[in-house]
Amino acid sequence: MSEKGRVHNVFSAAVCFVFFLICCQTAYGAEADDPLGSKQPYLQQIHVNEAWDVAQGNTNITIAVVDTGVDLTHPDLQPNLVPGVNLISPDQPPEDNNGHGTNVAGVIAAVGNNDKGVTGVMWRARIMPIKALEADGSGGEQRLGEGIRYAVDHGAKIVVLSLGLNKYSEYMSDIVRYAEERDVLLVAATGNEANRVKYPAAYPTVLAVGGVTPNNEPEERSNTGLELDIAAPWDVFTTAIGGSYEYMEGTSMAAPQVAAAAALAWTRNPSLKAYEMRQWLRQTAQNTEMPGWNPKTGYGMLRVDRLMKEPYMSDMYEPNNRKNQAKAISPSKSIAASFSDGADMDWYYIDAPYDGTIQVTLDMSRNLSVFVQHTDATGVLTSKTVHSGQTIPLKVTKGRSYLVLQSADRTQREEVRYKLTTAFEIYRDLYEDNDKQYKAFVLPPQSVSLKGTFHQYNDVDWFEFPVPQTGSLTITVATDTARIDPVLLVQKQGEKSITVDKADDGLPETVYLPEVFPGSYYIRVNNVKDYQNPVVGEYTLTIDYGAKLIDPNEPNNRWYQATAVSFDTPYYGLLDKPEDVDWFQFRLEEESLVQMRLSDIPSPATVYMNLHDSSVKPIASSMNDASSDTQQLSGRFQPGTYYLKLDTNKTFDHHMYQLNIMAKPLTGGYTDIRGHWAQDAILGLTSKQVINGYEDYTFQPDRPITRAEATAVLDRAFHWSKQKSVVYTDLDEEHWAYSHIARASQAGVIDGYPDRTFAPDQPVSRMEMTAMLARSMNMTGKHRGAVPFTDVNESYWGIGLLKQVKAEGWISGYEDGTFRPDQQATRGEFVTILSHLLK
User: Fold this and answer.
1) Is 751 among the residues known to form the active site?
2) Active-site hit among 34, 47, 67, 376
């Protein structure tokens, strides 16, 4: 049988591991005296000591271990074994030649208080070994089903299944139903791949067991999802083949703890049905994430003490009579509850992982009709009346929806118990019906990513991708669940197909076609042949199409063929051959700041930019780092014609670079003063080297001028020669304006603040500007005359200076008669007044 058709035990390799013993909270209750008991802290974690006060075993029921067999002579197991069967070699006893089944059996029922090894959750039990797996821990689904059926037909009350598949099958579904109809409890491990719950744990009536860490947190490797019921410790120390003991880990070791707990609980209440036992285990679990059910730990962690001491409740979800009391349930599981009378309303909520449909089935203890109301996550309300045994579909949108159940007979007085079974079905994707090649969904001729589903039996999805011109294709299909093992087929119309199925369950498949030609390419996505049933999960199909592009500027391989460039316009090109060189030409009518920016350079290519003058003499160059997709060459250039040459160390033909050349005319060496009201003043003071701009060839006339800038301008304008040593907490001698500030301080033009700071980067107010300029001219102000502006008065600190400079015509206010002395002064204002003074 192929690997995909085989089940695997433990889900993690059946290997020993060593971990540090965890200091656990001391549990009060009966104690086993087995010498290796100190290596079993997980027993305290599930509080089994307190449970042993009530019962230490159960020899009235049989627990079947469908696995690799059991070490039949192990001294810590032999007293608790009953005859089983070997389905691999029917003429041989079910002897374990792998070790996994012996590990599981020891967790359940290593004999307690026998002065040997370890103790199981039960000291005394009836363990039926059923060998259904090979020596390597794998086996066929057929044998697994035979093992379960054998256990049911030979009196087992509990069947432990520490094994699993990603595959749903009608055969196994029928076997599970067979066990449920005969009131046999199936307990199965969810798996250890940090993925979805495996089968058979995922069937609605199988108790699915996940794993928790010694700190009661979800074990990150434990499979989780819609079908998870309960969790138990992941790490154990248990029996091993050859009469030995070993550390083991995995949900395979968690499941037998739950099975043993159920067997102990049946000593308290032997009349409980299997479905009621499932509910009792859920009811008494310890919440680890949040109250109620969740997909990480189900209903919580196993608590054997609660199971043995708390009464079974026919409806563990009460109180849930109102929406704000609604209890969480899985979209794909069977639960039990009851109506206390005709007025009892049961509210549940369901968090759907995708859009889809939930099939809801109600089975009641007597023939009764039930009113069902469902509110979808989008607010759509559906109301139906359901009879016992009837299944109804409810459309759901991804997110939270609410389900309300109430007896249709409002006069009902006695309690009516019911089983509620939900089964989630994923949505039909947007591309259906595309199950045949001639029905292929036609995709746009460009790179695309889409999500699809396998919503029906043997679902196959075909897509047609039109390739408009020669290029390359990379096609990848990935999935969010191990229940999908995607197969990818690609075929150009009329040619041989390529099929890829190299990776394991849940892993992506990729087809790379380095050269594709115009025409239709058909893409088929399907699940492997063995996984033909509908799957709750999505796949993502990604098509990366790279057209072999044509350079629109060719021929431009010589300077005299250079493409003429318009400024601030993108130009696209390729360097697709070793000898390919791209030339571009631009002309400047006046002195300008030119910025040549090259972007979208495909990795790992390096493109060389070389600028030439009108005589084709190199004058500037640049290159990008291989890790960068952009570069820039800029500078101040005189009028004339220029040529830009591009070449590369690595050719590319599926991705175009983008070239953009911008030219900003310069006025006095600045790009931003032409037409500005302060232009003349700026040009005049620049020519006298009193002011300068910034490194990017801007002056920024409307930007606030700082104290350091204003001081430096005044120092250059008035040529102060003397300076005094100044000490400010925020200004050291390395500051660019230190010497200017020292000379201005000596001249009495400016000073610091009382807190010994100078605040060189603080903007200057209009009043501070006026004061600095006036002091530079040795003005002291005057006190006679009218107040010149409406927003100052005689008590204002700078009123004397304002009167004097206003009278002499240096400054003027605003049209509304204000001066706005506290408003920040701009660089343009400052140089304009200074220019007027210097005249």
Assistant:
1) no
2) 67
* Cβ–Cβ < 8 Å for 162, 189: yes
Identify whether 67 is a catalytic site residue.
Answer: yes
3-state DSSP assignment of residue 772: helix
Sheet order of strands, 230-233 included: 85-86, 127-131, 62-67, 156-161, 185-189, 207-212, 230-233
| Residue 19 reports pLDDT greater than 80 | no
Residue pair 54/268 in contact by the 8 Å Cβ criterion: yes
pLDDT digits (tens, 9 = 90+) for 77-132: 999 999 999 999 999 999 999 999 999 999 999 999 999 999 999 999 999 999 99
Q: Closest Cα partner for 255 from 296, 223, 215, 208?
A: 208
- Minimal CA–CA distance to 691: which of 828, 574, 799, 509? 828
How far apart CA 257 and CA 285 sit, in angstroms, is 13
CA pair distance 557, 452, nearest whole angstrom: 47
Per the CB < 8 A criterion, the answer to whether 758 and 752 are in contact is yes
Spatial neighbors of 583 by CB under 8 A, at least 6 apart, are 556, 557, 558, 559, 561, 562, 563, 643, 644, 645, 646
Is the dihedral angle over the CA atoms 693, 698, 701, 703 positive or is it negative?
Answer: negative
- Residue 119 to residues 130, 161, 340, Cα–Cα distance (Å): 22, 21, 42
Residue with tokens 């060839």: 697
Length of the chain: 839
| Tokens at 723, concatenated | 């300076």
374-387: string of b/e by CB count within 10 Å (b at 16+)? bbbbeeeeeeeebe
* Candidates 8, 74, 100, 740; catalytic one: 100
Confidence category of residue 29, pLDDT binned at 50, 70, 90:
low
Asked if pLDDT for residue 21 goes beyond 80, the answer is: no
From its phi and psi, is residue 458 left (phi > 0), alpha (psi between -120 and 50) or beta?
left
**122 near 304, Cβ under 8 Å?**
no
Q: What is the pLDDT of residue 163?
A: 85
The first and second tokens of residue 739, run together, are 């010497």
Q: Are strands 391-396 and 356-364 parallel, antiparallel or unpaired?
A: antiparallel
3-state SS assignment for residue 153: helix
Sign of CA dihedral 18, 19, 23, 28: negative
Within a 13 Å sphere around the CA of 431, how many CA atoms are in the beta-carbon half?
Answer: 27
Question: 12, 162, 169, 252: which one is catalytic?
Answer: 252
Active-site residue 582, yes or no?
no
> From CA 171, how far away is CA 193, in angstroms rounded?
24
φ, ψ dihedrals at 309, nearest 5°: -125, -20
Whether 792 contacts 821, CB under 8 Å: yes
d(CA 676, CA 658): 34
What are the backbone angles phi and psi of residue 282, rounded to the nearest 5°? -65, -40
- Quote the tokens at residue 13: 């390799």
CA torsion, ordered 756, 759, 760, 763, to nearest 10 deg: -150
| Residue 591 CB neighbour total at 10 angstroms | 15
Cα Rg of the chain (Å, integer): 42
Report pLDDT digits (tens) over 736-775: 999 999 999 999 999 999 999 999 999 999 999 999 999 9
Q: What is the pLDDT of residues 558-609, one digit of tens each?
A: 999 999 999 999 999 999 889 999 999 999 999 999 999 999 999 899 999 9
282 contact partners, CB below 8 Å, separation of at least 6: 229, 230, 293, 298, 299, 316, 335
How far out from the chain centre does Cα 416 lie? 44
Q: How many C-beta atoms surround the C-beta of residue 266 within 10 A?
A: 21
Q: How far apart, in Å, do the first and last CA atoms of the chain sit?
A: 102
Q: Which amino acid is at 610?
A: N
What H or E segment, with its residue span, contains residue 460? strand 460-467
Q: What is the pLDDT of residue 396?
A: 96
Q: Give the confidence band of 152 by pLDDT, cuts at 50, 70, 90.
A: very high
**Token pair of 60 as six digits:** 């009235």
Output the pTM of the full model: 0.68
